[in-house]
Amino acid sequence: MFELINVSKKFGHTQVLDNISLSLSPGSRTAIVGPSGSGKTTLLRLIAGFEMPDSGLITMRGTPLFSPTVSIPAHQRKIGFVPQEGALFPHLTVEENIGWGIRASRQERRKQVEGLMDRVSLDRQLARHWPHEISGGQQQRVALARALAQQPEIMLLDEPFSALDTGLRATTRKATADLLSQAGVAAVLVTHDQNEALSFAEQIAVIRHGRFAQSGTPQMVYSQPIDEETALFLGDAL
Ligand code: ADP
Predict the structure, then answer these.
(1) Is 37 touching ligand 1 by the criterion CB < 6 Å?
(2) What is the ipTM of this complex?
(3) Which ligand 1 atom minimizes the distance to the CA of 36?
(4) What is the pLDDT of residues 60-83, one digit of tens each?
(5) pTM for this entry
(6) Looking at ligand 1, which atom is closest to the CA of residue 45?
């Protein structure tokens, strides 16, 4: 459904992404793991359309989103983005945050917001609350609902669970994974946390210095790591 083919990106003289290729199918779950500074966030920003590559091709259902002659901006891509904590507009209520990008009458928007709150298991009574009045886990659900409002085909998750404590992190992760798979939305999770990657994804891509050092199923990457660095990284998960 979505393909990134030989994509490269430099910032100044630094080669941040070097010939990266990635395929996503509907409902699939991919984790991108790698050390800080390896290019994970830049990769998500290229998929979303917040940054353009220097070279390569990005296609959705065979139609170019980026090529030498085409460059489709973020708001025209059906791609949702859930960043790390602090992603909500602090001066808007829960309801206003979720409904922010919905172009519809007030009544219709409220109906859609309620439906989205149900989908992410947020109590409707929280609709008029401010972000600072709700918990971290609830804030992440609001961010997810806001991204779902755009009816994305791909959901990009940039360390979205990192601020949550361990128990809540596991339940929020599972709920998010189930919701996106059922909706047929391809999920791409960036994480530092090996356990998170192994339990969330069907496909893990290990990124190192802007290149995929290895990609495969969690079992494959775990049992046959490509090098010692990957083995040590995944070994920490035990
Ligand atoms: P990660 O998410 O894996 O920590 P990033 O994609 O954020 O890595 O960053 C990869 C490299 O690109 C880092 O060296 C970072 O300093 C650099 N970088 C990221 N964004 C920019 C930018 N807008 N301008 C210049 N350098 C950047």
Answers:
(1) yes
(2) 0.96
(3) 4
(4) 999 999 998 999 988 889 999 988
(5) 0.89
(6) 6
